[in-house]
DNA sequence: GAGTGGTCTAGACCACGAG
DNA sequence: TCGTGGTCTAGACCACTCT
């Protein structure tokens, strides 16, 4: 564990445990450096992390303060590389609707930047959050890059499996817009037909820049994102 | 201009001007340090910037590479503090539908964390991107924090005006989901009734953590966001 | 093992804010 | 003017990748 990350975690725990409210002033940079026994640069980096994850905000010449968002009934939009479900894997369950290995159709091939007909896995899943249908996901994995995928992995986290196999997941492009669900989609998600929903398309890259996954998902959840 | 920022800009220009494609290898960290005459830390920070803005990706032990997203017909979702319109202010025009100063209703007061009845400005605008209706925005500004707002500012960028008045804008919380437009909204946006749309609610804070703006916007655009 | 990215330090100096 | 956050440097040392 990186030093600045460890410190960031400790500070965050401190804020959470003591339930400090928005605007509460924290010790000064110099004091924090001494408290944690690190250099200024490292402490700054820890604070930068916390600022980027919206736990604190810093005001030059004045101090470091606790930041809190108002609404709690929304899910985080971007958590980390693993996609939307950064820290609540436990709350997710899956129902696999399709699992097959087939040659890529033109549109899929284009998104994966492969020749048409290259072998891909297609996985269609309905995901439940806390037992409620939440997320309809169709994803395509490049067979050459992910190796053999046993059908059972689709029941759990595919990304965790791939990481365990030594794949290094790097970053992703996300495209999204708003659509009407068709009848089949709405039924699966337990919504009336013609409900509005978010559609998200993801293109995932390995850490060396090669595309290994294209997926599209539909949901009707509420999200939040914080920005600086 | 910060040194690491200036360097990041130069490198980005270099990549754009030469139209380097995804995966192109850049000079090594040490070479870049020498080329720009800065310390390792500073160069790293410049590269971190570029990595966060999805211009490059770094692979330890291997090198620094150009990153490109595939689709160009999407708008950026998060650009910077100024909200959605980071770098394309010029393409935006406004039609002001309402401009008034009034006591805050309970729901608005709650979002602004003010007592009910506090004075706020309410501004309803239709925004055009490249001349096409694009974005329906209703926003509420805290009168005590923004001072006197002449009605004419609503025709341009309100945030630019506020900044010019010395207000320091800090960060924001963004909440979004998908909804059906009602008849009036759809008409304004030049869409059929019952079209699906994205709804975005924003809560903007000053750099000292006080809320000064709450707004909700509706649109049917396509967005992208990249993540690491 | 050579080369490349990544973390950390100690200390100099700058920029902003509050009294 | 003083305390606080913010930037930059030079150099030590670590971790990964490629051959």
From TrEMBL, chains A, B:
Name its GO BP terms in alphabetical order.
Answer: negative regulation of DNA-templated transcription
Keyword check for DNA-binding, yes or no.
yes
Keywords on record? DNA-binding, Transcription, Transcription regulation
**Which residues does the UniProt record annotate as the domain HTH gntR-type?**
1-69
One MF term from GO for this chain?
A: DNA binding
Question: Which SMART domains does the record match to this protein?
Answer: HTH_GNTR, UTRA
What SUPFAM superfamilies has UniProt attached to this entry? Chorismate lyase-like, Winged helix' DNA-binding domain
Recorded hits in Pfam families, A to Z, give: GntR, UTRA
Q: What is this protein called?
A: GntR family transcriptional regulator
């Amino acid at each position: 564990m990186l030093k600045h990350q460890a410190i960031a975690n400790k500070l965050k725990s401190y804020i959470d445990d003591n339930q400090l409210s928005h605007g509460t002033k924290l010790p000064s940079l110099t004091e924090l450096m001494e408290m944690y026994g690190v250099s200024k640069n490292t402490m700054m980096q820890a604070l930068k992390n916390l600022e980027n994850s919206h736990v604190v905000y810093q005001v030059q010449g004045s101090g470091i303060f606790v930041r809190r968002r108002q609404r709690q009934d929304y899910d985080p939009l971007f958590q980390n590389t693993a996609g939307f479900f950064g820290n609540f894997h436990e709350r997710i369950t899956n129902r696999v609707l399709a699992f097959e290995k087939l040659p890529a159709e033109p549109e899929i091939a284009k998104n994966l930047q492969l020749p048409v007909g290259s072998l891909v896995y297609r996985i269609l899943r309905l995901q439940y959050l806390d037992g409620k249908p939440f997320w309809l996901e169709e994803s395509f994995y490049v067979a050459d890059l992910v190796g053999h995928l046993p059908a059972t992995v689709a029941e759990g986290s595919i990304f965790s499996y791939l990481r365990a196999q030594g794949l290094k997941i790097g970053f992703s492009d996300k495209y999204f817009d708003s659509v009407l669900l068709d009848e089949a989609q709405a039924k699966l998600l337990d919504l009336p037909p013609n409900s509005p929903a978010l559609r998200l398309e993801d293109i995932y890259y390995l850490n060396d820049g090669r595309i290994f996954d294209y997926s599209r998902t539909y949901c009707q959840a509420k999200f939040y994102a914080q920005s600086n």
